[in-house]
Design brief:
Number of helices: 9
Largest sheet: 9 strands, antiparallel
Structural class: alpha+beta
Strand content: 15-25%
Number of strands: 23
Length: 614
């Protein structure tokens, strides 16, 4: 319209001048006006130009245009609102007393960075929303309490469909510290729909979070993609009523979930019983656990299908892989059974606990120790605290692992006690080297030598402090194995450091944890039986030819696999610069710890070869 009026004004000026040039210009403009009017008619640009007559065949209701149009419903992820839920009591820092009016959980949704939620309890506290219906969460946001930026690191966001969060799964972990008065955001890669969503405080920080936001859209969702904390599988333990696991004897009912294969696979173990495990390791701040599913499972492709599984904490092993390496040596040396082991990240009741290893439970069962119809025992310095054990005639403490304590009969206990005593007596007899009447009548030599190589090569101070042995049938001999408990191996024990400078086998050294009776038994077989010594050299050479020199490659591969998980682990457990448990040193970084083990392995191949052939 503006162009039209401008052209019209020029036209009237041209007409008023009425000279030759003006007439020519008026003619041109007159033609231009005609074209503009025609274009406006075609396009319907001017409301004054009549519209084409309506089609009588149309069925539109002429009153529809008069109805007010409803606003379009929002599509895509939105900032979510709901009923605020969470830990009941906050703390009033002016009195250090419980409160329901000061520093409450509602503060995290008020849009004000100057307010915050601080729980009264220091750990296992949380805040979130009841959305009323399931939503797929696409993004989460958080901001720390001002000047407490570190309090959000390792906080965990979870979703659930039960109000007690017993079915909770992780949707995001905060890996870094926050920034004052600044919202940080994380994209959520989880397709399951949740009604209940929450932010779980890291350990010992009372939440101390200023703002939380959840984004998403209403949907039932599906399980096509679930969230893993790192590239490792994630193990989630939700105990009933969020009860803490504080005992090695009392089992706690739990729901256990294992997310793997980049979030595509989910193992659900409801009604799983969980308790603590271990000996010295149970006293560490990072606790090891034993899982007992309600039915047999084969998690993460494990060979065995079983109810019982272990989570090794590896607290004092700063490479997080010493057991993995020892089990690789066990396979290389040719032991009949090597426990399954896979590194995982562990969450307990919404709190990140660190990098663990999911392993077989050492037991007599199919796919594990093949002695279901026989016996499984352990030369065990802790036997005195076990329910079923005996002390041999030579003073060796032995725990009976199978048959189980609630199944073994007096006759069975007497039988295996007598058999072990006969084996020891044969070792210390005058004709102990006799193939038919000596110790080989009771003890399988090859498995004993293979177990010896694993322990001594890996540098395990505890090799003969804890020794598993099994008898597969009433008329069979005792086999030695499997290898187990190698967190002190590969130069991780000040009692035998430096191993490669000892000039003798570890079991004979001053720092060895083995009893005198066991040391003497090993010496009789390894150094005083010519046939055993010759066979030891043969098995060692077979092991070298079977790929033992590639162990450093296995180490490099696992270091890469563990890289993301170890970073989280040592944010949770800040011990890289500390000596813990039996550490002989603290190198300050994960890469330095890995490099040290790598150098040890390279040197140990040389020094152990010299010992075997001496």
């Amino acid at each position: 319209m503006l162009i039209f009026h401008t052209v019209l004004d020029i036209y009237f000026v041209a007409v008023l001048k009425m000279d030759v040039a003006g007439v020519a210009l008026a003619t041109v403009i007159s033609n231009l006006i005609s074209l503009i009017l025609a274009g406006m008619f075609i396009c319907g640009c001017d409301s004054k130009i009549p519209s084409p007559a309506p089609d009588n065949n149309q069925t539109e209701n002429p009153k529809d245009d008069e109805k007010p149009q409803e606003p379009e419903k929002p599509t895509g992820p939105q900032l979510l609102k709901g009923t605020v839920i969470g830990t009941q009591y906050s703390v009033d820092y002016t009195t250090n007393a419980k409160s329901t009016t000061v520093n409450t959980k509602k503060n995290v949704f008020d849009g004000n960075h100057n307010t915050y939620f601080a729980s009264y309890d220091r750990s296992q506290t949380w805040v979130g929303l009841d959305l009323g219906e399931k939503h797929v969460i696409t993004k989460v946001g958080w901001a720390p309490r001002i000047d407490y930026q570190d309090r959000v690191q390792l906080a965990l966001f979870e979703g659930a469909n039960k109000p007690d969060f017993s079915d909770a799964l992780p949707i995001y972990i905060v890996k870094d510290e926050g920034v004052n008065r600044t919202m940080a955001y994380g994209e959520v890669d989880c397709t399951r729909g949740f009604r209940y969503i929450r932010y779980v405080s890291p350990n010992d920080v009372r939440c101390n979070v200023a703002e939380i936001e959840f984004y998403g859209y209403p949907s039932e969702g599906d399980d096509s993609k679930l969230y893993q904390l790192t590239n490792l599988p994630t193990v989630i333990i939700n105990t009933y009523n969020a009860k803490e696991i504080t005992s090695k004897e009392v089992e706690i009912g739990s729901n256990v979930y294992i997310i793997s294969n980049d979030g595509k696979d989910l193992l659900s173990g409801e009604e799983t019983k969980v308790r603590g495990r271990g000996n010295a390791s149970w006293d560490f701040p990072k606790k090891p656990y034993r899982l007992k599913f309600d039915k047999k499972q084969s998690p993460l492709g494990a060979p065995a299908s079983a109810k019982k599984w272990t989570l090794l904490s590896n607290y004092g092993d700063k490479t997080l892989m010493r057991n993995i390496l020892a089990f690789e040596v066990s396979r290389t040396v040719g032991q009949a059974y090597t426990p399954f082991c896979h590194p995982v990240d562990v969450i307990v009741n919404g709190e990140y606990r660190g990098c663990y290893q999911l392993c077989d439970q050492v037991e007599a069962a199919s796919g594990r120790v093949e002695a279901k119809d026989g016996y499984l025992v352990e030369i065990d310095a802790y036997a005195y605290g076990e329910d079923v054990w005996f002390s041999s005639n030579w003073g060796t403490p032995v725990t009976i692992k199978h048959p189980d304590e609630d199944e073994i009969t007096d006759e069975q206990k007497a039988f295996i006690t007598d058999y072990f005593n006969k084996m020891e007596e044969a070792v210390f007899s005058a004709d102990f080297t006799d193939p038919e009447n000596g110790y080989r009548k009771y003890l399988d030599l090859d498995s004993f030598l293979r177990n010896f190589i694993i322990g001594e090569f890996c540098g395990n101070t505890d090799t003969f402090w804890s020794v598993y042995m099994y008898k597969d049938a009433a008329d069979g001999v005792l086999y030695t194995g499997p290898a187990w408990d190698y967190d002190l191996a590969f130069e991780n024990d000040y009692r035998t450091y430096p191993i490669n400078n000892l000039g003798e086998y570890i079991y004979k050294s001053r720092g060895s944890a083995a009893s005198e009776a066991v040391k003497q038994m090993v010496t009789r077989i390894i150094q005083e039986d010519p046939a055993a010594k010759a066979r030891l050299i043969e098995i060692w050479e077979e092991t070298l030819n079977n790929g033992l020199r590639d162990l450093t490659t296995v180490l490099d591969e696992n270091a890469e696999l563990l890289q993301e998980s170890q970073q989280l682990n040592f944010k949770r457990w800040k011990i890289l610069g500390q000596r813990v448990h039996m550490n002989c040193q603290a190198l300050g970084s994960y890469d330095s710890e890995v490099k040290y083990v790598k150098n040890f392995i390279t040197k140990r191949i040389e020094t152990f070869d010299e010992l075997v052939r001496k």
